[in-house]
Write a structure and sequence with these properties.
The radius of gyration is 25 Å and the shape is elongated. The strands form seven sheets. Strands 10-13-12-11-15-16 form a six-stranded antiparallel β-sheet. A five-stranded antiparallel β-sheet has the order 1-20-19-18-17. It has helices at about 5-10, 25-30, 110-115, 120-125, 185-190, 315-335, 345-350, and strands at about 35, 80, 90, 95, 145-150, 155-160, 165-175, 175-185, 200, 205, 215-220, 225-230, 235, 245-250, 250-255, 260-265, 360-365, 370-375, 380-385, 395-400, 415, 425-430, 430-435, 435-440, 440-445, 455-460, 465-475. It contains seven helices and 27 strands. The termini are close together. By secondary structure, the chain is of the alpha+beta class. Strand 19 (about 380-385) and strand 20 (about 395-400) form a beta hairpin.
Amino acid sequence: MNNDIEHLLATAADDTDRPLTTDVDDLLVRARRSVRRTRVATAATAVLTTAAIIGGLTAWSATRDESIGPAGTPPGQTITIDVKTGRIVDNETGKTVVPAPPVSPLPDAEVLNRCSRYDLAYQRLAHSERKTTDHAGPINGRWTVLVKSGDRSVLNALLLSPDKSIVATCTMSSPTKPDSLARTAGATVEARSRYRNPLTMQDGFQVPVPGVSRVLLDIAGESSPREALVGADGYATLGHPGKDNKLIILNRIRGYDSSGKKVYDQTPKPFTAPPRRVDPSVIVKTATPITPVVVLTKDPETGKPLAAAPPVSPLTDDQVTTRCRGVDDIYFKDLNQGGVGTDDGVIRAAGPVTKDWQVALKTGTGDKLTAVLISPDKRVYAWCHMLTATAKGPYDYARAAVQANGTFADSGVFGMVPEGVAQLVVDLPTGPTRALISNGYYIWGLTGGNSGIKSVRIRGYDAQGKQVYDQKKSIDTDFD
């Protein structure tokens, strides 16, 4: 990897490459457009498997029998704590609750210091040249630590901006090794407790009632409830699981006050967005391919030699669809649980990736692969980026539907060739580079972006080598 910090941060579920808004519905639609996942092994995370009970119910007497609750147990109390083991029993089901992750022993000032050093999410936002409602500024000592989990090395924290508009999720595998850092509108964090969306284990959420000191979570596929670590104002986290960075679905969220009385009970519901207004007859419209007559080997502006375009992947189209189907299966597994793409009938109608999907673009060497696949109905694209041969390794994956004008949104990881353009030159820090063009799409690297690049200038030339296109684009960097 070229740069561990940026590559690891790019795995975050990050809203900063799009304008933020306080409209919860809009944020949730965007949040489910892609699934991004990477496994980063670290021995330091093992400590989180031995979690401690933090926070408190009314203290029990050391001489009281374990099976007997404290005198004057308030009506409505539905959990019991074992004074000797610290374990909690869910009285509704009789099951023992999986303990909450431990509170980080790091002072708040140290948490903010560590997270501020790697606040690349804000740096990307500041250089994106896009309008946004995120004006909270970079993480600094004025931010508030809402909740913090881990030990002196591993860290998972939720941070609140001074203007209370942005919640940042900061996850680190060691003091100098960030895992993810995302900035999210506060309304979106609160909405995670109301909608049945896939979350990573380190994603925070908020129970929006005062006085919550304990939170129990029923997670799809798990037999026993889990206790979340609760911080200020009802913000909570399940901590930093390290290697077990799986997506989870919350079936039920219960909150209790300090006496054990239930004050919150929420069953998250699938999110239903307004129906798409795109004409169903609209299909993708790519530019007519043009074969260059004058092939550019030098930059027409500077005379410098052009770096070669990224190579076409040696994998066959069948091999590409087979590999990408592995991550696509994960995508579709979440659909019936209120997951990514549920709100978009066009994406759902395209169905899972099969060998009938067109491999419009493919680049990479060895096990590294980036491909753009087009659905048979020509209305949906799938972006598939894999660093290993199977979905068990790091990958980046997204799907989106065609827009009303027949184009796909330019995400910064690939683009559609403009009409009349036969060849493209991308100005990179390493020098001008030819882009790979295939079936009306282009890409200039394995990921379409390069670490440390905030924006690029893209120039298009016709068949005779005359410039007919000049555009600056903001880049969402990805790991490679």
